[in-house]
Amino acid sequence: MTSVIQRVFMGSRLEPKEPIYTMNEVAEHCDVNSCWIVLWDKVYDVTDLLCMHPGGLDVIMENAGTDATVPFEDKGHSKFAISMIDKYYIGELAECDRRKKCGS
Ligand code: HEM
């Protein structure tokens, strides 16, 4: 089931780009010097967002190096927030780590 926020989000997507990262690689970037998160199977380097995130640094750090899709959706981010996301996009999540697992 596609949520409203996901539909808005998907409508603003850039073309998928290389490189492809595994969840293990994402998990290595979990501190303030290098902070990555996954949203809807896409990888974002949000290091530069930390100090200016309107919801604060802590809420992002709690999700650093993980799939933050559910917490991101739960906070009810605005279309404005979603429009900011593209600038942090760095690549795709490896197929077998995606929300709809390969083979299922
Ligand atoms: C690329 C990633 C993110 C961007 C661009 C972003 C952007 C924003 C923006 C612009 C706001 C201001 C309110 C709005 O316009 O919706 C906001 C608020 C907030 N964000 Fe994020 N955010 C991101 C990731 C996250 C994550 C991973 C969490 C984890 C829980 C989070 C939690 C919050 C919270 C708690 C607020 C405050 C909501 C409130 O007090 O009304 N954000 N964010």
Describe the protein's architecture and organization:
Residues 18-94 form the Cytochrome b5 heme-binding domain. Keywords: Heme, Iron, Metal-binding. Pfam families: Cyt-b5. It is a single chain. This protein has 104 residues and is of the alpha+beta class. It has one domain: Cytochrome b5-like heme/steroid binding domain (Flavocytochrome B2, Chain A, domain 1), CATH 3.10.120.10. It has five helices and five strands; from the N terminus they run H-E-H-E-E-E-H-H-H-E. The protein has a five-stranded mixed sheet. The longest helix has 8 residues, at 4-11. It is globular and about 30 Å long. It starts with a helix and ends in an 11-residue tail after the last strand.
CATH C-level: Alpha Beta
Helicity, in percent? 25-40%
Determine the strand fraction and express it as a percent band: 15-25%
**CATH superfamily caption:** Cytochrome b5-like heme/steroid binding domain
Q: Kindly identify the CATH topology.
A: Flavocytochrome B2, Chain A, domain 1
Ends apart, CA distance between termini: 16 Å
Overall pLDDT, averaged?
Answer: 88
Number of strands: 5
Domain Cytochrome b5 heme-binding: 18-94
InterPro entries: Cyt_B5-like_heme/steroid-bd (IPR001199), Cyt_B5-like_heme/steroid_sf (IPR036400), Cytochrome_b5 (IPR050668)
Family: Belongs to the cytochrome b5 family.
Keywords: Heme, Iron, Metal-binding
